[in-house]
Amino acid sequence: LYPPMRFIFYLTYLFFNSRSFVVMTIILVVGGGLTRAGTASLLSKSSHLASTLEVAVWDKARGCGGRMSTSRMPSKPNCTADLGAQYITAIPSYARTHSNFYDELTSSGILTPLKLPIEGQKTNSIGTVDYICPLGSSSLVKYYFEQASIQTKFERKVSRLEYLKPSLKVSSTKEQTAHTKQWNVFAESGD
Q1: d(Cα 191, Cα 15) in Å, to the nearest integer?
Q2: Which of 107, 117, 128, 139 is 20 to 30 A off residue 157, Cα-Cα?
Q3: What pLDDT, in 10s, does the model give residues 115-145?
């Protein structure tokens, strides 16, 4: 099945005080997977946007992860099973280009090189490294959401988009809404 469309909504509004005004941008990120977590983290780290940016995330699941979710046994929280991606392969060219991400994630303990062979995996080219997430693959997604220091709302599935010139009303299945004067909408396929 083709993944459902996911959306990122942008809203710009003005804050006024007695001397000046500031243009404030609110971004609603729909989906709680790795792509959205990384996007939210990069947006929040952007120094030229930080003071005029607010990011919120809605996801239909009970927690973050998307296709990198981890299940834990209630009686043994250290016993985990990754339900989606179970390892990450970094080919040499990609590892060089994105070395700052791999260095950050390995130094923080989120990723660690896999030392055992993966049954059935094709032979990797020289210099390719397979990584695992010792705390479960969802820990990678959680790490980026924590870096973003943003508001995440789970069990909130977007159920309706309504264009009310010139505004866009976004409704969730729990009938909680965000209604604003101006939204610009950008769509992309899922994680």
Answers
A1: 34
A2: 139
A3: 998 889 888 889 999 999 999 999 999 999 9
Q: Residue 133: helix, strand or coil by DSSP? A: coil
Tokens of 176: 């909680």
* CB 6 within 8 Å of CB 31: yes
Helix (H) or strand (E) holding 143: helix 138-148
Q: What are 130's two structure tokens?
A: 């397979």
Predicted structure pTM score: 0.77
Give the pLDDT confidence of 79-111 residue by residue, as tens digits. 889 998 899 999 999 999 999 999 999 999 999
> Could you tell me which residues are beta bridge partners of residue 89?
130
Q: Which helix (H) or strand (E) is 87 found in, with range?
A: none
- State phi, psi for 89 to the nearest 5 degrees: -105, 125
